[in-house]
# Entry
Amino acid sequence: MPELPEAETIARGLHAVIAGSRVERVRVHRAEVVEPMSASKFRRSLTDRRITSVGRRAKWIVTSLDDGNRWVTQLRMTGRFDWSTASNLRARPHLSVSVLIQNADAAGVLRFFDVRRFARMWVLDPAAWSALDDRLGIEPLSDEFTPTSLASVLAPSRAPVRNALLDQTRIAGIGNIYASEACYLARVDPRRPAMTLERPEVRKLHGAIRRVLGEAVERRGTSFSDYRDLLGDEGTFQNVLEVYDREDEICDRCGDRIIRVVMAGRSAYLCPGCQR
DNA sequence: CCCCTCACCTGATCGC
DNA sequence: TGCGATCAGGTGAGGG
# Structure
């Protein structure tokens, strides 16, 4: 489900409610979510730890613990956190993990649900975290992401631009929605081999990626189906999508009809009238 | 090495 | 109403 903006929204929400708190109790309801860790090791690693901060890397939620380890979560398609301070929680299906959090004033329960069971959650020591971090590409909202750095990851690739943008080892955090939206904004046909983009096109694509992701963060993500934030609220970027999930609708820019094409087994959307 | 396809799961939706 | 096919925000393994 979530790409960078959704993960960022969740991470910020988590930071606001659990940073500085202590983990009182951990329950693993579905052991597969922590594999290949054992449920008991996961519980031991987290219980009694103080949470120093919550952030994001690529599409991962990264929670730093007071012993130097990191509690990391990959939401995949349908992973979802839910925060509640209510004393009696309503039971819901697909519960994977629940964590009782205690801070100075109050306690709350952080629950993690995952319908499709693709999500993963681990506690990693610094070496394991570093190995994971190293595999991931550049953060597109960081200062290091420039037209030049984008050019350097696209230039060696024969793959279509859209597929290159989805490759997390090149650029971290772009998923299916924002790959289509960024190509549209840059007027670039997503089927073009990445290496064929001219320098001005790379510059436009760089700007488009920044703008699309930045606005999506401001709008707290895209909820076209499952995605909700920590408190169950929807994002609003679905209201301003230009091409994604808009097959046969009219392009706002040129009036042509938006098409859906399948690339690397997944839908991509574009306007054949104004993307070249 | 690069890139694509498939598998992993459940649930919603659509056409017949 | 039921039933099968298709699709969904991700990504790692395996193979051409």
